[in-house]
Write a structure and sequence with these properties.
This protein has 518 residues and is an alpha+beta fold. 40% of the residues lie in helices and 13% in strands. Helix 8 (309-328) packs antiparallel against helix 9. The relative contact order is 0.11. The protein binds adenosine monophosphate (AMP) and magnesium ion (MG). Magnesium ion is lined by residues 268-269, 278.
Length: 518
């Protein structure tokens, strides 16, 4: 049984025709999933099924499979697509909305509400020139990464299921005039809500102040009730913005910790809950390159590169603040909150870096050690994940470094004298710093191994699962799901997956280059 929290409380589009169009003064449009011709469940997350209380103990029931493919509506479901706008690559893009996602409604478990959303279940009034469908390769990527990120401890939307529809979808993967037919697929995403910065932006842009207030009050009432004292007033909106700034900053710190690059940090892809949302051309850093972005659409400006993510998050929060300005009608208190972002982010980032280095406390002069390490890691191609994981075994003996780090380098020829002396210098500073560390070797290693993953959903691993799935072999999807459940555990049986990106994957489509097309 599903409930309709969002549609019962917010403004519906009075028009019910499912054609692409501009929608005014509404939060959503009712629209139904397309009936797929021969749906098939490829994989599901047992943790999410348990969270929703729908795991029969024997997999997902047939009736849930019908719901998750869009074939049958759950009892109580009034499916809808959300209306939102956004800034894309820094430019105002106007109305966007759920063009290929249909929300089924929410399920309440132990007073906690979860929205269920089918991505790729057919067109909506917000589909613009798109078809509303999703292809298998991008659905595998979204499905696996949502769960991998959760297990890494990164705030994220979840994925319940991955299904194929049995229908074909045409895509021009590289926008180069070579469209191909690909298998259609649907991922069921799960989150407290899918409300984005852009849901507020669209009301502000069209001066729908009454709807803006209604949506903000709905959001606070349902998801930030601890901020309400007597009623919802200007102070409540400010505290709410403050909390969104914090949760967004916390999320970015986690991204930087594991080397995640979102790739499309548009304001329509920013969750009001500080969750990672909309897995498109994302990627994890293999060799530590702060200027890397996986998104070929962003190859020129590199707006969404790794090192820029905290600045973009801040920029996006400014756009959210501008959107809710009409509720507060004073710029100064909004600016004060926004200006605190760097002062909040920076110590969180330093604490995270200290954890990665196994330091029990952060000292005032540690920042130099952290920044110097980032410089060192980008001097020669060094695998970020392997470097940190191996570093946990460092016991202060400088002569152990070459063997400890040998698997972290992409090309031994790069290890010239200039680099080796820079490395030596950094390790001398780190070794001296470890002498002031209150943690024992074992405690230090345990701390490091709890924040530096051994296993990561590297792009090439997803691509291998995709290549197999396109030949109807889905085993690798489930294997990756299994490995990524315990990214911090040794799992010696999966040692082969603790490996830097192989050379063949360096320039292969899907492994290092991805476009927005999915
Ligand atoms: P995204 O890149 O996923 O953040 O999508 C940006 C916007 O384009 C959103 O409004 C999406 O709903 C829309 N969109 C992306 N792909 C499609 C598609 N295949 N059909 C319809 N709309 C789409
Ligand atoms: Mg999006």
């Amino acid at each position: 049984m599903l409930q309709s929290l969002f549609t019962d409380h917010l403004t519906a589009d009075p028009e019910t025709e499912n054609t692409p169009r501009a929608v005014l003064e509404a939060d959503f449009s009712f629209c139904s999933p397309v009936n797929p011709s021969s749906p098939k469940l490829l994989s599901y997350s047992k943790e999410v099924a348990q969270l929703l209380n729908i795991d029969s103990g024997n997999g997902l029931t047939h009736s849930w499979q019908e719901i998750l493919s869009g074939s049958v509506l759950a009892k109580g479901s009034k499916p809808f697509a959300m209306r939102y706008a956004g800034h894309q690559f820094g430019n105002w893009a106007g109305q966007l909305g759920d063009g290929r996602a249909i929300n089924l409604g929410n399920k309440v478990i132990n007073n906690q509400s979860f929205e269920l959303q089918l991505k790729g279940a057919g067109p909506t009034p917000y589909s613009r020139a798109g078809d509303g469908f999703a292809v298998l390769r991008s659905s595998i990527r979204e499905y696996l990464c949502s769960e991998a990120m959760h297990h890494l401890g990164v705030p994220t939307t979840r994925a319940l299921s991955l299904m194929t529809t049995g229908d074909w979808v045409t895509r021009d993967m590289f926008y180069d005039g070579h469209p191909q037919k690909e298998a259609g697929a649907i991922v069921c995403r799960v989150a407290p809500s899918f409300i984005r910065f852009g849901n507020f932006q669209i009301h502000a842009a069209y001066q729908e102040i009454e709807q803006l207030k209604k949506l903000a009050n709905f959001t606070i009432n349902n998801y930030f009730p601890h901020l309400i004292t007597k009623d919802i007033n200007k102070d409540t909106y400010l505290q709410w913005l403050d909390e969104v700034c914090h949760s967004t900053a916390d999320m970015i710190v986690h991204w930087q910790r594991v080397g995640f690059v979102h790739g499309v940090m548009n304001t329509d892809n920013m969750s009001i809950h500080g969750l990672t949302i909309d897995y498109g051309p994302y990627g994890f850093l293999d060799n530590f390159d702060p200027n890397w972005t996986p998104n070929t659409t962003d190859a020129e400006g590199k707006r969404y590169r790794y090192a820029n993510q905290p600045f973009v998050a801040h920029w996006n929060l400014v756009k959210l603040a501008e959107a809710i300005y009409p509720l507060i009608e004073a710029a100064k208190p909004l600016e004060d909150i926004l200006n605190k972002f760097p002062a909040y982010y920076e110590p969180q980032w330093q604490r995270m870096m200290a954890n990665k280095l196994g330091l029990g406390q952060v000292f005032a002069d540690d920042n130099t050690l952290f920044k110097d390490l980032e410089k060192l890691l980008s001097l020669v191609e060094t695998d970020m994940t392997i470097f940190y994981r191996q570093l946990a075994n460092y016991d202060g003996q400088l002569n152990s470094i070459p063997s400890l780090l040998k698997d972290a380098y992409y090309d031994d020829k790069h290890l010239e004298q200039k680099y080796l002396s820079a490395r030596n210098q950094w390790f001398l500073a780190y070794t001296a710093r470890l002498e002031r560390n209150p943690l024992s070797f074992e405690e230090k290693k345990a701390l490091m191994d709890s924040v530096n993953p051994k296993y990561l959903l590297r792009n090439y691993l997803s691509q291998q699962a995709i290549d197999k799935a396109e030949k109807n072999d889905y085993t690798e999807i489930n294997k990756l799901l299994e490995i990524m459940r315990n990214p911090y555990s040794e799992q010696p049986e999966y040692q082969d997956y603790y490996q830097k990106r192989p050379e063949w994957a360096r320039h292969k489509a899907g492994c290092s280059m991805l476009s927005c097309s999915s």
